[in-house]
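Entry 12.
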Amino acid sequence: MISRLNVKDYIRTIPDFPAEGIMFRDVTTLFGDTRGFRMAVDLLLHPYSGLRIDKVAALEARGFILGGAIAHQLSVGFVPIRKKGKLPWRTIAQDYKLEYGEAIVEVHEDAVKPGEAVLLVDDLLATGGTAEAGVRLIERLGGEIVGCAFVVDLPELGGRARLEALGLDVHALCVFDGH
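Predicted 3D structure (tokens):
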């Protein structure tokens, strides 16, 4: 009998990491499996088939793994959105709120040209703060977000609702309840 696995089957759950009560969704097991990784990249692209995409932007760090593969698949440029102070050239920055504090992400000021269609990618959607900051950076450069694609959605944390309230298309390959 042939087993048909889905993306969720490739993701390891680690209880109480990084803190007690948190169920960490580890996508490195997905990335390390040839079939699983290929499936994830293909499924992340599927809803955007036929749309113009000029760049793929991804959020540090696991988003880079997906974003690079998707950009390669589409034969388009890749835009890294990094934590403050990690990019070597002139940048624009966007701050956002975390559960306990604030953070800043940056992008090179010439990473996206006005009017370019950009797909934003990351491994996991939780509160949506980092993704929204990435969206704001792309929009400030004149880019147009065609969608936001994630492997995992944690709907109880409100990220999908937050991005959809901005009028964005949100696509996730699987959903996990809880944190």
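Annotation: The mean pLDDT is 95. The chain has five helices and nine strands.
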